[in-house]
Known about the structure:
An 8-stranded mixed beta sheet has the order 2-1-5-6-7-8-3-4, with helices on one face. The protein is of the alpha+beta class. The protein has a domain at about 60-175: Nuclear Transport Factor 2, Chain: A (Roll), CATH 3.10.450.50. A hairpin with a 2-residue loop joins strand 6 and strand 7 (about 150-160). The protein has helices at about 30-35, 40-55, 60-80, 80-85, 110-120; strands at about 10-15, 20-25, 90-95, 105, 125-135, 140-150, 150-160, 165-175. The longest helix is centred in the middle third of the chain and has 20 residues, at about 60-80. The protein contains 5 helices and 8 strands. It comes from Luteolibacter arcticus. This is Nuclear transport factor 2 family protein.
Amino acid sequence: MNQKTHFIQPVVAVLVGGWIYISSAEPTQSDPKKQSSSKSETSHQQQTKENTMSKPTYVHEYKAIVTVLKQYLEGCKQAKSSIMKPAFNEQATMYSVDADGKLAGGAIQGLFDGIDSAFRPSPEAQGAIVRIEIVGTAASARIDANDMSGFCFTDFFHLLKVDGKWTVVSKIFHTHVAP
């Protein structure tokens, strides 16, 4: 039986100084038996590498995800959940670990309620999209934020492209001690 192995190559896009850096992680072979591959396998790998170079990148998807994440950040800065709501799927969830080390969270409405009742506008707050990883219609992202209404936190988001639009389906976070 002749089986072909297909690798999914995750893409990592990082925004640095206004530039988008995109890298594709190629699968590596650590098995010595696999390293002594035949000429046809080497030729296939070179052909695959050449084809990968000519395929479109995830730049468009990356920019669309950044737009979604910026809605969240702006909603935090302005302390208005109405600004961030469009970034989230109505079935989205949010979880963290509370002061007692227990799982806390649930429906994303808890975030919106907290933003509207406990946050204050923080126009000088800083937030950075640290990482975005995209594979097909799934993505994950990390945001680090300082002094959002007196809080410093790291958020991890999972996004899906539903009906052609990127949407946050889950958020987990860690709150840091504010400086």
